[in-house]
Amino acid sequence: MPINQMKELKNWKTLHSEILVDQPPWLCVRADEVLLPDGRVVKNYMHVEAPDSVMIVPVSEAGTIGMVRSYKRGLDGIDIQPPAGMVEDGEDPLHTAQRELLEECGCTAGEWFDLGNYILGGNFGGGWVHLYLAQRAHVIAEPNPGDLEEMEVLWIPLEEIKRMWMRGDFRQISSSAAIGLALMHLNGSDHAGSPHG
User: Fold this and answer.
1) How far apart (Å, rounded) are the C-alpha atoms in residues 18 and 37?
2) Model's pTM, two decimal places?
């Protein structure tokens, strides 16, 4: 069906919420009672609130992409992903991205593109992730993530990143989305992102 012929859908209405887990700033889990458009009421519809985060795909002038290899608790294993981090309260996401790129890869970048904001879970929530492409990235300092992670910074050729992405080697949805959108941008797609100075 063409987009201009789609029928109008209505939002659900939250009648009541009960907080089940509250661990600021990391996580809040609540059980909602919701009213559906047809009048039915659903109880215990779970919703997860988490802080916003950023993920950055840095591309060097040599055509390599900066990646971070570390243990990820959600996977319970070692994974490779673009640099990422949590948006501090009141912080602009672009500033977070620039800070995280410096902390995790020791880099700055000459050109930034906003690749969009995406909710992690369409049904349960989970926080928004802000994706960026950072071109003309170059190392200016030693990485200093300052958190729990033991990590290794890898600079992988663009063509190898494409092959890894096509094979499904990136096991986190945010990593796969960020890399896919960055590859589209670098390939001259209509989805060009919004430039930042």
Assistant:
1) 22
2) 0.89
